[in-house]
Amino acid sequence: MVQIEDWLLAIDIENTKMAVEFNSYLCMSEECRNFVEACENHMGPVVLEFANKLGIDLAKPSQLESLQVNNNTAVMYSGKYHIIGEVIEGELDAWDIVLDTHCFSLTSEFDMVPIVMIGSIIEISFEVVLPWVLEVKMEV
User: Fold this and answer.
1) 59-86, pLDDT tens digit by residue?
2) Is the CB of residue 121 less than 8 Å from the CB of residue 92?
3) What one-character-per-residue DSSP string does 77-131 give?
4) Which of the chain's termini has less CB crowding within 10 Å, N or C?
5) Residues 108 and 12 sit within 8 Å (Cβ to Cβ)
C-alpha cells in the first residue's frame, strides 16, 4: 500500500515496472528526446521521490504530447502514466498534486494503456513545463 496525501493506493510496483519496460509507445521527435533527457537528468528530488513511490519511470509515459512555450525556450508536456493497481481510499476527481513544476491528476480515460498491463489500472495524467536541455537547437 502506498499513501499519497489523502489517497491510499494498492500498487503492484514490480509488474508495473516490467510492463513499462515493454511499453510499445516510442516517440523519437526532438521534443520527446528533450523530455527523456530532462526526466533522466534534470528532475528535482521531490518529483523523483513521488515517481519512485508509485513505480513510475518519468521518462517513459504511456502517452506524451508537447507544445513549445516561453518564446521557444521551453516545452509544455502533457501525458499519462499507467500503474497496475487500484485506488483504495480517496476521491478520483479530487487528486491534483503539484510538485515543483509538475501537476499530477488521477484520470479515467484509459487510452494508450500498455497492452501488457493486466488487471486494475490507475491512470495518472500530468502537465509540466520543462526547459530545452538538448544540445541541438529547438526547431520552431
Assistant:
1) 999 899 999 898 878 999 999 999 999 9
2) no
3) EEEEEEEEEEEEES-GGG-EEEETTEEEEEE----S--TT--S-EEEEEEEEEEE
4) C
5) no
Tens of pLDDT, residue by residue over 13-50, are: 888 888 887 765 677 888 989 999 999 888 899 999 99
Give the pLDDT confidence score for residue 140 in this predicted structure: 67
In this structure, what C-alpha cell is assigned to residue 127? 502537465
The predicted structure's pLDDT at residue 24: 56
In terms of Cα–Cα distance, which of 86, 82, 108 is closest to 9? 86
| Three-state secondary structure call for residue 51 | helix
- The CA-atom distances, in angstroms, between 137 and each of 30, 39, 56, 73 are 9, 18, 29, 9
Is 122 within 8 Å of 82 (Cβ atoms)?
yes
Q: Of 133, 67, 65, 130, nearest to 100 (Cα)? A: 130
